[in-house]
Design goal:
single chain; 679 residues; five-stranded antiparallel beta sheet
């Protein structure tokens, strides 16, 4: 042990002194080591005694952070169920790195105690050197510090992943950490831990925000309607007079160039083109339908709902408060009561009727179907209708949105894993979505977002009809019908090297193109069907006035059927005398000329637009050279990787979601670049 301590200490000192360099999978390890020596005066070889706060101080902190601890314990319990048996403990600290509560396997408590990971211990960087908690606090971001990344030699058997928890004002208030003693997992496997811990931290943040503003109206919004009221949406608290009094981190990120300080104190009508009735407190208390809105600065489209959080909400109901973050990762195979058959889906539109005829002819075969069409055109509904028209109708239909699952989790989600296969693996393992679809249909939506390395594994499954879960060497036979979908042209992606050609031909048994709503010839029938379903659920019978129907037919529908459904839901909530009038439809439909002007080129752009993209602002004019440099670095990396966003994000050390957000912020449109447009 003495030799190991000496070697590690010499390496740290040499790196900080510039005598050698290290490869840094986790950025800024060298910077942290430098802080430990130059700012904190620590010695990597010295065995400092852990600093543990006294009982009275711990009691004070627990009183101070009682709401945080109350919320965090519930999420820690849920997260621990996923990592039980993996050797990891979950720790919650305050903003100074003092451990406030923990979740530890009793059989491992001695080893964690020996490592200094105990209740009340101070794990700030100034006390314990580079570690998942202290370095997370120092750098204000999620970090993994794996074994010899630690500054102190006594910690090189640890692997720690910490994610910051911000309070409703955007200040760091706590850290959620997953730590393992005698870590047996590889550095690559820590990516799973980081993804899960970060997601749990975001959920705690959302709960803290909603708890703070439980007696105020809260607007929930996102550019994709299906993400509203989930972990991914933005939340704003609004006073009775419409003044913004709070905005969470996601809201700030979605608005990109609006800071919290710039938002607080403004009226909501200065930020979004909200309908006038949104300022009505009675409306805000009961509004649950989605309303399409635009931000006034750039004209980007969002979908919004509002709620008055019940102050008597049971504290333990974390999913009610925040929206389940798990819904974006673990795609549930829940029973559907709104299944439509192919006749209903196709309606009287000639293109859709042809699609339905083709699907029926293939009902008894296992020919792969590729659905292409813009966001919101009903690809998932059509896929379900195909499944229910096939001989597999009595077997599972399992849908997976490849764009909604973090890249670090998608492999385990699809292929399953054995117990202990990676950090955070459930002790009983998991079957995976492919095996769950055995005997039935697997629907892979937004398959163009699947990383190239996983495309190879999927191709092998389709060719060999077996699945090998992570951590296993035993293949399991599987019998599935595959339907895939993409709003992007996969053939173009193949030509650009962003999609495997052999997989494309395996998926493309037949390609069925779903038209955008503006091109369908049966719009009135679609409106009637949606209204019948929605009004039946509300227990009413609603009609549409001739003037309102004219507006509905004239509108361009950039959000397609999904947008139409949300508009009709809002109109149902707003209409009087059970008849929808023009004033119930919102400003976009009441002024269709300006709405159509905004989307004059949508016919050529919709099929190429990324599912997560929103209308990008024009190229900014920079006075700040750092922002200009960041934009140039993004462009250079994206073009270097031939527009493969997964590779570009990996090179830049960020997630794909962050990369797309920064592209929107800097006005980067890759479709325009590939087509020869201006930077």
């Amino acid at each position: 042990m003495h030799d190991t301590t000496y070697q590690h200490s010499e390496r740290v000192i040499d790196v900080v002194g510039g005598k050698q360099s290290i490869e840094q999978p986790e950025s800024n390890i060298t910077s942290s080591w430098s802080r430990c020596i130059n700012s904190h005066g620590l010695d990597p070889s010295r065995r400092y005694s852990p600093r543990v706060e006294d009982v009275n101080r711990i009691a004070e902190l627990e009183d101070q952070y009682d709401t945080l601890i109350d919320i965090a314990r519930l999420e820690m319990d849920a997260l621990y169920e996923q990592i039980a048996g993996s050797g990891y403990a979950l720790l919650l600290t305050d903003a100074n790195g003092i451990i406030l509560c923990d979740k530890v396997d009793p059989n491992l408590s001695k080893s964690f105690h020996a490592a200094g990971l105990v209740h009340g211990a101070n794990w700030s960087e100034s006390m314990e050197g580079t570690n998942g908690i202290g370095t997370c606090i120092a750098e204000q971001r999620a970090v993994t510090v794996h074994r010899t990344d630690h500054f102190r030699a006594r910690h090189i058997d640890l692997s720690c992943t910490g994610a910051p928890i911000l309070d409703p004002d955007g200040a760091l208030t706590a850290v959620l950490d997953a730590s393992c003693v005698n870590a047996k997992y590889s550095r690559a496997n820590q990516m799973h831990t980081k993804a899960m811990v970060s997601m749990s931290s975001r959920l705690i943040e959302k709960c803290l925000f909603l708890r703070r503003f439980r007696d105020q109206c809260v607007l929930r919004f996102h550019s994709r309607a299906e993400f509203v009221s989930l972990l991914q949406d933005g939340a704003m608290a609004i006073a009775e007079d419409g003044t913004i009094i709070g905005a969470d981190q996601v809201a700030i990120a979605l608005l990109a160039d609006e800071s919290r300080a710039e938002l607080i104190g403004r009226n909501i009508s200065e930020v979004f083109d909200v309908p006038p009735h949104v300022s009505d407190p009675l409306y805000r208390q009961c509004q649950s339908a989605l309303t399409p809105i635009r931000d006034l600065k750039h004209g980007r489209r969002f979908y919004m709902t509002s709620q008055l959080t019940n102050s008597s909400t049971q504290k333990g109901n974390r999913l009610h408060e925040a929206g389940s973050g798990a819904q974006a990762v673990r795609v549930k195979n829940t029973p559907r009561t709104d299944i439509l058959d192919l006749d209903t889906v196709s309606g009287r539109d000639p293109v859709m009727q042809r699609n339905a005829r083709c699907a029926r002819r293939l009902a008894t075969s296992d020919v792969a179907i590729l659905l292409q069409g813009p966001t919101g055109s009903g690809k998932d509904v059509f896929a379900r209708a195909v499944h229910h028209a096939s001989e597999r109708a009595n077997h599972p239909f399992v849908a997976v949105n490849c764009a909604a699952i973090p890249e670090t989790l998608i492999e385990a989600e699809l292929f399953g894993y054995k117990a202990g296969a990676f950090t955070g693996a459930r002790k009983e393992g998991a079957r995976g979505r492919i095996l769950q679809a055995d005997g039935g249909t697997l629907f892979l939506d937004e398959i163009g977002d699947m990383p190239l390395e996983l495309q190879t594994r999927l191709l092998r499954v389709l060719e060999e009809r077996v699945v090998t879960p992570l951590g296993s060497e035993v293949p399991t036979p599987v019998n599935i019908r595959l339907i895939s979908a993409s709003l992007r042209d996969l053939k173009d992606m193949v030509a650009e090297g962003r999609f495997r050609e052999d997989l494309y031909y395996r998926l493309n048994g037949i390609t069925l193109k779903l038209p955008p709503l503006r091109k369908r010839q049966d719009l009135p029938e679609i409106i009637s069907n949606i209204l019948a379903t929605e009004s039946a659920q509300a227990g009413v019978s609603v009609s549409v006035s001739a003037a309102a129907m004219q507006l509905l037919r004239a509108y361009h529908w950039p959000g397609n059927i999904r947008e139409l459904r949300n508009v009709l839901r809002t109109a149902l909530a707003m209409c009087e005398d059970d008849c929808i009038q023009p004033e119930d439809l919102g400003d976009d439909l009441c002024h269709p000329e300006s709405a159509n002007d905004d989307h004059s080129h949508a016919d050529t752009h919709d099929d190429r637009r990324h599912a997560r993209s929103t209308q990008a602002p024009a190229q900014p004019v920079y006075g700040n050279p750092l922002e200009a440099a960041e934009r140039a670095a993004l462009l250079e990396t994206i073009e270097h990787h031939r527009y493969n966003m997964s590779r570009a994000a990996r090179t830049l050390g960020m997630s794909r979601n962050t990369l797309y957000r920064k592209m929107r912020q800097h006005g980067i449109d890759t479709d325009a670049l590939r087509g020869g447009g201006s930077r």
